[in-house]
Each structure stands twice: as structure tokens, then as C-alpha cells.
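name: query_chain
kind: protein
chains: 1
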Amino acid sequence: METVSVNQFRDNLRKFVEQVISRHDPLKVIRRNGGDFVVVSAEDWDRERETLYVLQNAELMKQMEESLKTHDKREGYEPTKKELNEITDF
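structure:
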């Protein structure tokens, strides 16, 4: 994660915002008196929030664990060729 001073951020706001959005890489902005902050795109923030929700949801994590077990044993559901085409053909 790149780090810039609050003065650099203020002076180059447009450039840094475009960079955060296009690279999907957060930007840490540091201040002399502390209270640093991070700039992240809305798309990336939504993705992070969704990930945190799943990780904090014990029931979802249990379902994923069970799914991985059946997948590893090749005992899980196998979609038909038609179903696979529906999934992979956008």
C-alpha cells in the first residue's frame, strides 16, 4: 500500500483517487498529528465488507467447510454440461 502525506494527497487529489480506483490498491494518507486514514474505492470497500460478513458468519463458514470436504472427496454435486454452460457462458 502506497503512503502519502496529507499535503501530497490534497495537492494531487484527482490523481490519487483515479489511482485507487484503477489499481484497486488502497492509499494510506498520513498526518503529522496522527489520525492517518486510508482511501479505498467503493467497489473494493463493498467487496471487503462482504468478505468480512462471510468470515464472521459461523453458519456460512460451516457450509463452506462441508462443501470443501465433499469436493475433496469428489462426493459433491456435479453439474450437467448444460448447467456448466449456463454458468460459464455470459
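note: The first helix runs from residue 6 to 11.
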